[in-house]
Amino acid sequence: MNSIHTIKETILRLEEKLLQRETRTSPEKLKELLAEEFLEFGSSGHVWVRDDCLGDGGVGVVKMTIHDFEVRELAPDVVLATFRVFDEHRVIYTLRSSIWKKVEGNWKMTFHQGTLTKS
């Protein structure tokens, strides 16, 4: 059984991976990280499902950094990650939350939401 500290490190690494160009532009890499039932409510107001992310070019390139990262266990093998992101392109902060579920031994993101914030 993994400790919450180990799970936190793992999920942070996966969240950071989702911000990398190599992952965001690769439908194959995105398939590895996004659950089939993946749903996102973006800070832009758009709603996406997994298939929306797997087209040519993936989900696009961003330059973002994660701050104030935390995880909370919701159930065995299900965690909620909450954090802030600074978007260097748009020069804004957003609040983020993701639900990760362990599927066949691998963590997969099932839900993500971005919310604009003032700072």
Automatic annotation (TrEMBL):
Domain DUF4440: 11-109
Taxonomic source organism: Alkalihalophilus sp. As8PL
Name under which the protein is recorded: DUF4440 domain-containing protein
SUPFAM superfamilies: NTF2-like
InterPro entries: DUF4440 (IPR027843), NTF2-like_dom_sf (IPR032710)
A Pfam family hit: DUF4440
